[in-house]
Amino acid sequence: MKRVMIVDDEKDVEVLFKQRFRKEIKQGQVEFCFMFSAEAALDYLKHHYPVCLALILTDINMPGMNGLELLRIIKESFTDLTVIMVTAYGDEQNYQTALQYGADDYIHKPIEFDRLKAKIFES
């Protein structure tokens, strides 16, 4: 089973992922852990590390700590975790910063779920 952490301040993301991965969840192929802030994600990692996460998907634009700062901290403290950045904006500055901080991939919203499924199951 693949475990994936989703970090996004928009709570409707949970419903969306559960709908798009309904079959895979039912078959026990994937399990999602939803965090609605970067701070909550870090708190979870600090208390549950080492966790068996296939990857972390994090939004960039969130109130409080943004996804780029979360990425930087994860790559410094939990170096073996795979992190994919998700954004609704085609901002070159964020893209370059994400690469500099060690992002494993960078995808745009709306998410292409077939592509994302392939990434999850290849990791």
Automatic annotation (TrEMBL):
Every Response regulatory domain range: 3-123
Transmembrane segments: none
Gene3D superfamilies according to UniProt: 3.40.50.2300
4-aspartylphosphate modified-residue sites: 59
Biological processes per GO annotation: phosphorelay signal transduction system
Name listed for the protein in its UniProt record: Response regulator
Annotated keywords: Phosphoprotein
InterPro entries named in the record: Bact_response_regulator (IPR050595), CheY-like_superfamily (IPR011006), Sig_transdc_resp-reg_receiver (IPR001789)
Source taxon at top rank: Bacteria
PROSITE patterns, alphabetized: RESPONSE_REGULATORY
Protein species of origin: Thermocoleostomius sinensis A174
